[in-house]
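Input (Thioredoxin-related transmembrane protein 2b):
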Amino acid sequence: MALLTPLFAFLYHLPQVYKWLLKPYYIASLFMSVAFLAVRKTPGICDHLATQREDGNSCDFDWREVEILMFLSAIVMMKNRRAITVEQHVGNIILFSKVANVILFFRLDIRMGLLYLTLCIVFLMTCKPPLYMGPEYIKYFSDKTIDDELDRDGRVTWIVEFFANWSPECQSFASVYADLSLKYNCAGLKFGKVDIGRYGEVSKKYKVSTSPLSKQLPSLVLFQGGKEVMRRPQVDKKGRAVSWSFTEENIIREFNLNELYQKSKKLSKTKEDKVGQSQFPPVPEEEEPEQQGANGQKEETESKKDK
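Output:
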C-alpha cells in the first residue's frame, strides 16, 4: 500500500510531469540519472567493463551494484515521505540517482567516476531547474522596499517568504505558496517574497540564515503592524531550525489563515466604502416647499415696499 499511494499520485499528475520532463533541465537530468544503467546494458560498451559476477557476464549488474541500487531506492522512499509536491518527488529521484551513479562509476573505473563527477559539477553550475511561472498574488521585495511596505499600513497583515533561487526546497515550495496567495490574498492580508540569496542585508536583519546546513530556507514570517509575530520554521536557542513540513495544510493551521482572511475581508469592505464615499460626494438636500414659499412672500413684500 505504501508503494501504491505515490504511484497513484504520480499517475494523477502525469500530464504535469510530462510538461516538466520536456524542459532542458529535466531532459539532461534524466540522461545523467540513467547513465550507469545505459553503460552497463549497452552492447558493445558493456563487453569491455569489469565485473564481479561468477558467470563473467559484464552486461548485467553484479551483487554489489544491486545492493547499491536497492539502498538508493530505500533512501528515495524515505525522502519522498516528506515531499509535498511532485517537483520534490522528481527532484529527490534525480538527486540520489546521480549520487548512486557517482559511486557506481568510481567502483567500476576511477577514470569514469572522475568524468561523471566533473559532468555533474558542470551541470550544477550551468543548468538551473525551471522557476515557477504560474499565477500568483505575491509582491516581490528588495532590500530597499521591504521595510517601507511592511510599515506602510499597520492594519495590513503580511506573510513574507524568505527564499533563495538556488535552494531546491524553495523552488518546490513556490507553487504551494502561489496557491495560498490566490486563495487568501485581500486588502488586509497580503503575501510577499524576498530573495535573501540576492539581498544579504535582509537575511542579516531578519535573522534568516542562507546556509544550506541551517535548513531555514524557505522561512515564512507573519508581520502585523510592521512587526514579526511568528515564523516557521522556528529557530532554537542554538540557532538551528526546528524541522517543519511546508504543506498547505500546516501553513493554514499554524498561521490561522482562515481566521486572518475573515478579519481581513472586513478591512477590505471598510476601504471600499471609504473609496465609494470619496468618489460620490453627498447630494445637497433640497429646501422644503413651505420654506421656499415663505421666502417667496418675503421677497414680494420687500419689492412692493421699494416701489
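Residues 86-108 form the longest helix (23 residues).
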